[in-house]
Each structure stands twice: as C-alpha cells, then as structure tokens.
Design a protein that fits this description.
With 477 residues, this protein is an alpha+beta fold. The chain folds into 2 domains: 7-269, NADH Oxidase; 291-476, 3-Layer(aba) Sandwich (NADH Oxidase). The chain is 30% helix and 20% strand. The chain contains 14 helices and 16 strands. The chain has helices at 2-7, 50-55, 70-81, 140-147, 162-169, 173-194, 207-214, 261-269, 304-310, 324-334, 376-382, 402-409, 413-434, 447-453, and strands at 38-39, 83-86, 92-94, 105-111, 120-125, 130-136, 152-161, 199-202, 221-232, 291-292, 342-347, 356-361, 366-372, 394-400, 438-442, 461-469. The strands form 3 sheets. The protein has a 7-stranded antiparallel beta sheet with strand order 1-6-5-4-7-9-8, with helices on both faces. Strands 10-13-12-11-14-16-15 form a 7-stranded antiparallel beta sheet, sandwiched between helices. It starts with a helix and ends in an 8-residue tail after the last strand. Flavin mononucleotide (FMN) binds next to helix 6 and strand 15.
C-alpha cells in the first residue's frame, strides 16, 4: 500500500501530458438496464444544529432510536449523496465534494423491517432521488456475516467505481476513490446522527462477500465503507436472501471502459476474507508546550442540512488571518476524535495564535507549535502551483506513516488512512461553511514537496491537503 502511494506520487517534471478523451468520459450515474428507480418521498430535512453534532463525536447514543419515515430516509440519502447544484455545463454537483467532480462513489442500502419499503438490497440513484431494487429479501443476516457486528434494520454501503476517476487521474485514481468515499461517509454519518439514529461503522469487512451481495464486480467497483444504522434486529429476524441470484445488468459508463493493473493490485492487497475488529491507532501524547484549544460554537449556529446544502469548493481566499476561535472550531469540527491519519496545520494566525506550522492533537484539542513563520506560499507551489492554497488562512496537510500502519494492520490500513483523510476533509468543508468561510480539498500535489513544507517525519506521506479561510464576497461571492 505504501508502494502504491509512492508509485502514484506526483513529481515536478514527472507529470507528463495526459490526453483526456472527453467523448469517452464516464457517465457519473450508475444505471441498470432493466430497473426503474422507485422514487422516494421529498426529503424532510430536520433542524438538527450543526455544531453540537460536529463537536460531540462519536454521537452519543439516543435512549431510543426514532422510527424512520420515508421522508427521513430520503433526507438521509440526499444529505449523504444527493444532487444539490448544477453548473452551466449541465454537470450536477452533490452534497459531498468530489475530485474533479467525477463522483466515483456510489451508495447502496440494505433495508429490513421498514414499514414503507420492501426488505431488500437497494442502490441509491441520486439523479432520480430514488432507489433501484437490486435484490429482494431480508438482507441483514447475510450482511452481518460480511460486515461483522449485530444486524440492524438499515445498512448503508459506499463503493468506488475506479473508471470514473481513472479516466482523468490514471493510476492515482485509487487515492481519489478512497478520499471521495470518505467525503460521502462523513455526510452520511452526520446525517444519521442528525436523524437520531444509532450507528456503527465497519471498514474491516469481508470484501468478496459484500461485493457478491451487492452484485459488484471487484475489477470495476469495490465496496469501501459500511455503516449499520438504527436499532439492532433480533437474531431470529435475520435470514439471508438465498443464492442463485444474478445481479441486474448495468448500463455501460462510457463507450470504452479503461482499467489499471496497479489499482487492481492496490485494492487486492487490502482485501479481507472475513470481518475483523476496527484497529486502534496509537496516538502521540502532545508535549506540555502544546496550546490547549477551547472552541466556542456560535450561540445561533446553522443546522446541518443548510450547511450541507450550502457547501461548495471555494478558492477565492482573502489574505486575512484566522481568528483563534474559528481556527479551534474548524479543527475540532473536522477532527473531533483520533483518526487513522494525522494533521499538520499551516496557519495565518492572530491574537495569540501565531502564524506557523503546528501538529493538531484531536483527542486533547491541542495545537503543538512546530515552527513559526509562514509556509503557506510554499504549500501553494507544492500543490501543483495552485497558488490560491497559499492565500488560505488555514491549511491542513493530512498525513500518515503508512509503513508503520501496515506493520500494525496489514495493507488494509491504506484504505483506513485515506478514508479517514476524506472524512476529515468533508467535515472541514462543513465546519468552514458553518462559519461562513470558504474551503477546498487539494488532492493534486507534489508529494515530496508537501512532505517538506509540512516538515513530516521520515517515512511519513502526505495523503490530502485542505485549505480554508475567508473568501471574497463571503459564501454568496
Ligand atoms: C479528493 C478531492 C480532491 C480535490 N482536489 C482538488 C484540487 O486539487 N484542486 C481543486 O481546485 N479542487 C479540488 N477538489 C475540489 C473539487 O474540484 C470539487 O469538490 C468538485 O468540483 C465539486 O464541487 P463542489 O465541491 O463545489 O461540490 C478536490 C475535491 C476532492 C474531494
């Protein structure tokens, strides 16, 4: 996995030219040949406030999970993966950010015991705001064998279709599939929490069994993350849909679908035969000189739903420092708990939070100063010359020692690290939007240069860069 990441590092002079065949661009919606989506009720967006959800993570369990109505399910799916804007070119933008707006991530659902929906395995069709029924029958028992954990009435599975991203990013596309899936996962988790649904994340599942259940061809599309939500089911209620099932035929994504052996190899390396517990990643103790942050959210903060709806990638940053409380809120909202990757912070600070390079310690909400001085312009240059990165008041360089993680948990750890980075990225976008700030993910960078700018320890790799801060004209601009 480390070798895949190193192999796909961008280097100055090593980018070469890449012809993008627009006539063969993959279609961003998955369609089945003989299925018509069952449309869902209009989403009923609740008023759950953003900051309490974002800061108290993992969400405390509700004494009794509320029953889900169809409009609540519709809201959950729309907030996780729905369409919410359209560009002049006709391209739809969605709730989660996506590298190049190529949307490799798909969302599937297993439902059992819902009053308004047949038991079965479904695919979410964002363009129809509907569900394609892939396989009728009670799925929770088979799913539990693939995922682990005790079955619940609802499970959501996020996948990645390599070709969508590969078309533009070539071998580096596996990175983007994982980051994009992490972005969708963050929205899904927050939306489930806003609906008061208990949830349990599973990243260490049996890949083959889960792909078989959903009818996915692992050479084209891999399941990447799964979330059980809602109340647990009685063991007796969980029967498997029996075998002999043919997945519904898909429509082609483009005239000619490409593939990449290095991506297949990277995916294959991390495959598990059976589910296993989520790893616990060791976290360093912050030194005594680290600054303890105490973020205070605004008294009248916005709701999660309007924040997700208003989130967009914004790059027109002003040369303005960030105020310390906003910096603390951005970090606590994006990184509410220890994760499978770590965060360097490049700050343009003020009022006691000086401009400089820091390491953020999520568990303790502590910023460890590493070096004073402004490295942001260098980060812009290292981000393939995207100089707006250097204007942003706060940038994160999400990083990991992939070799050490692999020693602990095997090659599956790569997925954990990249999914975590995407998840943090989406949460940073949302936290910035809630504060009226702009934000943008940066997946395109010269890896070694970013490692130098962020002063990463030997053996560590940058996974993802995120930039945020005040933008010209505010969020309406
Ligand atoms: C993993 C990832 C990497 C991205 N990398 C870049 C980047 O390098 N440069 C950039 O300008 N935008 C980047 N973006 C932002 C996307 O272009 C943007 O999310 C997409 O166009 C959809 O627009 P929206 O975020 O406004 O919904 C990235 C987004 C993601 C999720």
């Amino acid at each position: 996995m480390k070798s895949y990441h190193q192999h796909t590092a961008y280097t100055r002079g090593g980018l070469g030219g890449h012809f993008m065949d627009h006539a063969n661009q993959p279609w961003p919606f998955k369609r089945y040949q003989d299925l018509e989506a069952r449309s869902l009720a209009q989403p009923e967006l609740n008023e759950a406030p953003f900051w309490p959800l974002a800061l108290a993570w993992p969400p405390p369990p509700w004494p009794k999970a509320p029953a889900l109505a169809e409009a609540d399910l519709s809201a959950l799916l729309w907030l996780a993966a729905g369409l919410n804007a359209q560009l002049g070119s006709g391209i739809y933008l969605r709730a989660p950010a996506s590298a190049g707006a190529l949307y490799p991530a798909e969302l599937y659902m297993a439902s059992q015991g819902l009053e308004f929906l047949d038991d079965g395995l479904w695919h979410f069709a964002p363009d129809a705001l509907g569900l394609d029924l892939l396989r009728p029958g009670a799925p929770a028992g088979s799913l539990a064998r693939a995922l682990g954990g005790q079955p619940r009435g609802l499970a959501l599975v996020i996948s990645g279709i390599y070709w969508r991203s590969l078309w533009k990013y070539r071998t580096r596309a596996w990175r983007y599939c994982l980051l994009d899936a992490g972005h969708m996962l963050a929205n899904l988790e927050l939306a489930a929490a806003a609906a008061g649904l208990d949830q349990e994340l599973h990243l260490e599942f049996a890949d083959g069994s889960l792909a078989d259940l959903l009818g996915l061809d692992p050479d084209r599309e891999a399941p990447l993350a799964a979330l059980w939500v809602g109340p647990r089911l009685e063991a007796s209620a969980s029967h498997a849909p029996e075998g002999g099932w043919q997945p519904p035929a898909e429509q082609a994504l483009s005239k000619k679908e490409g593939s990449d052996p290095a991506i297949l190899q990277a995916r294959e390396a991390g495959v598990l035969d059976k589910p296993r517990p989520e790893p616990v990643w060791p976290q360093p103790v912050p030194p005594a000189r680290a600054l303890k942050l105490a973020p205070v959210p605004p008294a009248e903060g916005p709701g999660l739903a309007p924040v997700i709806a208003a989130r967009r990638s914004r790059r027109n940053f002003l040369q303005e420092p960030i105020n310390p409380n906003e910096a603390a809120l951005l970090l606590a909202g994006a990184l509410p708990a220890a994760a499978a990757c770590r965060a360097r912070v490049l700050l343009h600070g003020q009022e006691g939070l000086d401009t400089g390079l820091y390491e953020y310690h999520p568990g303790e909400m502590a910023l460890e100063p590493l070096e004073a001085g402004d490295r942001r312009r260098r980060l812009g240059e290292a981000s393939l010359g995207q100089l707006w990165v250097g204007q942003a008041a706060l940038s994160l360089v999400l990083w990991a020692d992939l070799g050490a993680m692999e020693d602990q948990a095997g090659p599956r750890a790569y997925r954990q690290a990249m999914l975590a980075a995407g998840r943090i990225g989406q949460r940073l976008y949302l936290a910035a939007t809630a504060l009226g700030l702009g934000c943008c993910g940066v997946g395109a960078f010269f890896d070694e240069e970013v490692a130098q700018v962020a002063d990463l320890p030997p053996g560590a790799s940058p996974l993802y860069v995120m930039s945020c801060g005040a933008v010209k004209g505010g969020l309406g601009g």
